[in-house]
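Figure 6 in text form: structure in, sequence out.
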Protein backbone atom coordinates (compact mmCIF):
# COMPACT_ATOMS: atom_id res chain seq x y z
CA UNK A 1 0.00 0.00 0.00
CA UNK A 2 1.17 3.49 -0.84
CA UNK A 3 2.36 5.49 2.20
CA UNK A 4 0.14 8.46 1.33
CA UNK A 5 -2.94 6.25 1.06
CA UNK A 6 -2.05 4.53 4.35
CA UNK A 7 -1.66 7.94 5.99
CA UNK A 8 -5.09 9.01 4.71
CA UNK A 9 -6.73 5.91 6.15
CA UNK A 10 -4.89 6.09 9.47
CA UNK A 11 -5.56 9.84 9.75
CA UNK A 12 -9.31 9.27 9.53
CA UNK A 13 -9.21 6.23 11.82
CA UNK A 14 -7.11 8.08 14.41
CA UNK A 15 -9.52 11.03 14.45
CA UNK A 16 -12.54 8.73 14.81
CA UNK A 17 -10.90 6.75 17.61
CA UNK A 18 -10.01 9.99 19.40
CA UNK A 19 -13.63 11.17 19.20
CA UNK A 20 -14.96 7.80 20.40
CA UNK A 21 -12.51 7.87 23.30
CA UNK A 22 -13.33 11.48 24.18
CA UNK A 23 -17.09 11.50 23.64
CA UNK A 24 -18.14 7.96 24.54
CA UNK A 25 -15.52 5.96 26.46
CA UNK A 26 -14.35 8.69 28.86
CA UNK A 27 -17.86 9.80 29.89
CA UNK A 28 -18.84 6.15 30.41
CA UNK A 29 -15.80 5.67 32.60
CA UNK A 30 -16.24 8.79 34.71
CA UNK A 31 -20.01 9.23 34.81
CA UNK A 32 -21.21 5.67 34.32
CA UNK A 33 -18.54 3.82 36.30
CA UNK A 34 -17.79 1.69 33.21
CA UNK A 35 -14.02 1.74 32.61
CA UNK A 36 -14.18 -1.09 30.05
CA UNK A 37 -14.71 1.34 27.17
CA UNK A 38 -11.44 3.13 27.85
CA UNK A 39 -9.71 -0.23 28.31
CA UNK A 40 -10.74 -1.20 24.77
CA UNK A 41 -10.71 2.11 22.86
CA UNK A 42 -7.64 3.54 24.60
CA UNK A 43 -5.10 1.03 23.26
CA UNK A 44 -6.68 1.10 19.79
CA UNK A 45 -6.38 4.88 19.74
CA UNK A 46 -2.80 4.65 21.02
CA UNK A 47 -1.75 2.36 18.18
CA UNK A 48 -3.49 4.57 15.61
CA UNK A 49 -1.85 7.67 17.12
CA UNK A 50 1.61 6.13 16.81
CA UNK A 51 0.86 4.92 13.27
CA UNK A 52 -0.30 8.44 12.29
CA UNK A 53 2.88 10.00 13.66
CA UNK A 54 5.12 7.44 11.94
CA UNK A 55 3.31 7.62 8.61
CA UNK A 56 3.24 11.43 8.65
CA UNK A 57 7.01 11.50 9.07
CA UNK A 58 7.52 8.81 6.40
CA UNK A 59 5.17 10.49 3.89
CA UNK A 60 6.55 14.00 4.47
CA UNK A 61 8.81 14.06 1.44
CA UNK A 62 6.31 12.40 -0.88
CA UNK A 63 3.68 14.97 0.16
CA UNK A 64 6.10 17.86 -0.35
CA UNK A 65 5.69 19.13 3.22
CA UNK A 66 8.23 21.55 4.65
CA UNK A 67 9.26 21.34 8.31
CA UNK A 68 6.52 23.75 9.43
CA UNK A 69 3.73 21.81 7.77
CA UNK A 70 5.13 18.55 9.13
CA UNK A 71 5.16 19.91 12.67
CA UNK A 72 1.59 21.17 12.25
CA UNK A 73 0.46 17.78 10.93
CA UNK A 74 2.11 16.07 13.90
CA UNK A 75 0.56 18.54 16.34
CA UNK A 76 -2.84 17.85 14.75
CA UNK A 77 -2.73 14.37 16.26
CA UNK A 78 -3.39 15.80 19.72
CA UNK A 79 -6.52 17.71 18.68
CA UNK A 80 -9.76 15.74 18.30
CA UNK A 81 -10.79 16.69 14.74
CA UNK A 82 -7.58 18.10 13.28
CA UNK A 83 -6.49 14.85 11.56
CA UNK A 84 -9.71 15.07 9.50
CA UNK A 85 -8.55 18.49 8.28
CA UNK A 86 -5.01 17.28 7.59
CA UNK A 87 -6.41 14.42 5.52
CA UNK A 88 -8.88 16.62 3.65
CA UNK A 89 -6.66 19.58 2.82
CA UNK A 90 -3.04 18.35 2.92
CA UNK A 91 -3.10 14.64 2.11
CA UNK A 92 -6.07 14.00 -0.17
CA UNK A 93 -5.12 16.51 -2.91
CA UNK A 94 -1.69 14.89 -3.29
CA UNK A 95 -3.17 11.39 -3.18
CA UNK A 96 -5.41 12.27 -6.12
CA UNK A 97 -2.43 13.28 -8.24
CA UNK A 98 -2.63 17.03 -7.75
CA UNK A 99 0.61 18.80 -6.94
CA UNK A 100 1.31 19.47 -3.27
CA UNK A 101 0.74 23.02 -2.10
CA UNK A 102 3.62 24.33 -0.04
CA UNK A 103 2.22 26.54 2.68
CA UNK A 104 2.64 26.22 6.39
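Output sequence:
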Amino acid sequence: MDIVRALRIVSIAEAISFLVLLLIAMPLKHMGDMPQGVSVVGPIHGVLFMAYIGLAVMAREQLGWNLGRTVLALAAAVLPVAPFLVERFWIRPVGKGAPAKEAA
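Caption detail: The mean pLDDT is 89.
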